[in-house]
Design a protein that fits this description.
Elements: H1 15-22, H2 29-33, E1 39-42, E2 57-64, E3 69-73, E4 77-86, E5 89-96, H3 101-104, E6 111-120, E7 123-127, E8 130-133, H4 134-140, E9 144-147, H5 156-169, H6 180-186, H7 191-199, H8 204-233, H9 246-254, H10 261-274, E10 281-286, H11 292-304, E11 309-313, H12 317-333, E12 339-343, H13 349-361, E13 365-369, E14 383-388, H14 396-405, E15 410-415, H15 421-427, E16 432-436, E17 447-451, H16 456-468, E18 472-476, H17 491-499, E19 508-511, H18 517-528, E20 534-537, E21 550-555, H19 563-570, E22 581-585, H20 595-602, H21 606-616, H22 642-658, H23 664-678
Parallel strand pairs: 5-7, 10-15, 10-16, 11-13, 11-14, 12-13, 14-15, 17-22, 18-20, 18-21, 19-20, 21-22
Antiparallel strand pairs: 1-9, 2-4, 2-6, 3-4, 4-5, 6-7, 6-8
Length: about 675
């Protein structure tokens, strides 16, 4: 069995199961091996049931003193109930559609009840707890069971069984992906063994070992590809002849606000780059809300005023259209004689042809788009500047493709995810780095608070109060839909719950990554237009439209997110003239607030938050939702895995020193093998 083998050939996968996996984007053996667990379930010591553990998945040891009762309601619906006595605590348990349990739970016999503990009117309850004998539970204690992302109709047991069948029939392969000196020094497992350790770890140490190999591999190839690009490009002579840039100063003078010191210095550095002897590449690290978009517009204006084209590539169609409308408005307001064109994937064939024609024949053009800008059909007319917005959404190869569209244009990449400068220099070794630390003076600080479950109603009242004043709100959930035994809030159920609450008599809609692109765009545009009061979303809004009227964001299960990602999400509000608020719901065990979340209370400085994230997260904090969301990595996290990143960078330098120039074609083959096996575009 090979990585390219269709999933249908795996034992136990029929036509219906194959379709369910395809709904997850899983088509081949390689796909399912890269469908990593989102977390792991660990069966720890049973706990004393108390209100302290409300909302948490726990094991309770206890026994029932009277037989469980079964009653039927509304036709065939059966409800089984039992009272569990656990030390000094009493837990009411209820099961739906499971009448057979009444005979399986023996009276006066200690058993383990495993489920989410709830508190209703000061009474402890469990719904649908799994019941284990003491011996069975002890046999599972401290083991790690993978919990996978799912879709409706696909359960965790089936995913685990299918992956196990794959491992039973696949050989060891692809060990030529890494240099021997690195494999031997780190005593890394083979590629296949590393995948097996990630899916079925015996313990945390084995999980760490398997993941470590795969993370190192991702970093090694990303840096190797970047270094080869540097070698291939060298110093390219700048043949563009730019004007004096006076029009940029004229527009700056007409702005209704003054640029910050950080904006001024960054813009000045870009304009100087354009006039230097060599083609430039510059990374702009600007914190959330630091005003990078106006810098992009002014830099593009400097280029088009000299008769050349300038393009900006955004990661989403919604963001691209926002830039398009913003640039058109500024051209009108400042009476600039330049055309703005937009190109996105969802445009009709006729609209695309019109955009292609304008781009091919119009000099001095402002071009805005998505990945559609790198399609073969797009022919540019003296493209002198390329800007990628939210650059971590694009791989190195995608940026290179856009560069190749022009006649060696200058490159600016913008990121709203601040990372420590030492790591930035490794990842972007061929780029100059600018940082915008300050924010526009008219921005009010976002008031942030971290709360526990008992204050949930207060949070809802806060949101309702903002809605009544005409404002809008975001609610962020980690998941799209309820998964087997999950603790996290999910989008679908959350919307239904809010709509049933008398407190919210307003428009409430859902947004998540599995929606068709057209539907996602429509929901975001409706929210931006004020047609939706509460948007319940996954992290797809992390890079989203500018909605100044949104003044409050509630982030569920905030303890599941990395600080960098929380900072990005918080930046969705605080963009208008009203006071804005960020509420972080901490569902970690106990009443004590998670130390990492307290950092969000201390600062709105993304650079400080990134450093604290690096300090607080140890090498064992690596599973669950990936933390930083930076760059095109499947597993690697540049903050949590910073030491691995630094080692990989050193090893790439050694590898290149040991390799002769004639070996570079072989390196290209290695890169292609890595991309093929990992379904990644570098």
């Amino acid at each position: 069995m090979e990585f390219c083998t269709p999933l249908r050939q795996v034992k136990g996968v029929g036509e219906k199961t194959e379709q369910l996996f395809q709904n997850l984007g899983v088509y081949t053996v390689g796909d399912i091996l890269l469908h990593f667990p989102r977390t792991y379930e660990e069966f720890s010591e049973p706990l004393q049931a108390t209100e302290e553990y409300s909302g948490q998945l726990i094991a309770v040891r206890g026994k029932i003193e009277t037989p469980a009762k079964v009653r039927k309601v509304r036709g065939n619906l059966s409800i089984t109930t039992a009272t569990v006595f656990s030390g000094s605590s009493v837990v009411e348990c209820v099961w739906f559609h499971m009448p057979y349990l009444a005979k399986q739970i023996s009276c006066q016999t200690d058993m383990i009840f495993y489920g989410v503990l709830e508190v209703e009117n000061h009474r402890l309850k469990m719904r649908q707890p799994v019941v284990y004998s003491i011996e069975k539970y002890q046999s599972m204690m401290f083991s790690m069971q993978p919990i996978y992302p799912l879709v409706k109709g696909l359960n965790n047991t089936l995913v685990r069984k299918t992956i196990q069948n794959v491992f039973d029939n696949i050989g060891d392969t692809a060990d030529g992906l890494l240099p021997e000196f690195a494999l031997e020094r780190e005593q890394m497992p083979s590629y296949t063994d590393a995948l097996r350790m990630l899916h079925f770890p015996q313990n945390r140490l084995e999980l760490s070992k398997g993941r470590g190999r795969l993370v190192y591999q991702e970093f090694f190839y990303y840096i190797l590809y970047s270094r080869l690009q540097e070698i291939g490009q060298g110093n390219i002579k700048n043949t563009w002849d730019f004007s004096d840039g006076s029009i940029v100063n004229q527009v700056k003078a007409q702005l209704p606000y003054q640029l910050t010191d950080g904006q001024e210095s960054t813009l000045d550095e870009i304009c100087q780059d354009l006039r230097k002897p060599w083609i430039s590449q510059r990374l702009i690290q600007g914190d959330v809300g630091s005003g990078k978009t106006i810098i992009a517009f002014l830099a593009m204006l400097d280029v088009v005023s000299s008769g050349y084209q300038a393009a900006i590539m955004a990661p989403t169609e919604v963001l691209a259209r926002q830039h398009y409308e913003s640039f058109k408005k500024m051209c009108r307001d400042f009476q600039l004689p330049y055309q703005v064109v937009c190109l996105t994937g969802s445009q009709t064939a006729k609209e695309k042809r019109q955009s292609y024609d304008i781009i091919a024949r119009t000099p001095g053009l402002l071009i805005v788009g998505t990945h559609a800008l790198i399609q073969e059909k797009v022919q540019y007319n003296r493209l002198a500047l390329v800007i990628t917005d939210e650059q971590h959404r694009f791989g190195v190869r995608q940026r290179e493709t856009l560069l190749e569209k022009g006649e060696t244009p200058h490159m600016v990449v913008m990121s709203a995810t601040p990372i420590p400068r030492t790591l930035a220099m490794i990842l972007y070794g061929n780029m100059q780095i600018s940082a915008i630390h300050d924010k526009p003076q008219n921005r009010l600080p976002i008031k942030t608070c971290v709360i526990k479950e008992r204050l949930r109603n207060k949070a809802y009242e806060m949101i309702a109060s903002q809605i009544s004043e005409g404002r809008q709100a975001y609610i962020i959930c980690p998941l799209v839909e309820a998964n087997e035994k999950t603790e996290a809030e999910n989008v679908q159920d959350y919307v239904n719950k809010l709509r049933e609450m008398p407190l919210f008599s307003c428009s409430i809609e859902a947004l998540h990554g599995r929606m068709p692109a057209k539907k996602k765009n429509q929901v975001m545009e409706d929210f931006a237009a004020g047609k939706i009061s509460i948007l319940v979303s996954t992290t797809v809004v992390e890079v989203g439209v500018n909605v100044p009227n949104a003044t409050v964001i509630l982030i569920e299960d905030a303890n599941r997110f990395g600080l960098a990602q929380l900072h990005q999400l918080r930046g969705r509000v605080g963009r208008g003239k009203w006071q804005s608020y960020c509420i972080l719901m901490d569902k970690s065990k106990g009443e004590k607030i998670t130390e990492r979340l307290e950092v969000m209370n201390q600062s709105e400085d993304g650079f400080f938050i990134a450093k604290e994230d690096l300090r607080l997260r140890g090498p064992g904090d690596f599973y669950g939702i990936r933390q930083s969301g930076e760059l095109n990595f499947r597993l690697a996290d540049i903050i949590g895995d910073s030491e691995v990143l630094e080692q990989a960078a050193r090893d790439v330098d050694v590898f290149l020193e040991q390799s002769e120039m004639e070996n570079y074609p072989r390196m290209k083959e290695m890169l292609s093998d890595f991309e093929r096996l990992n379904h990644i575009v570098l």
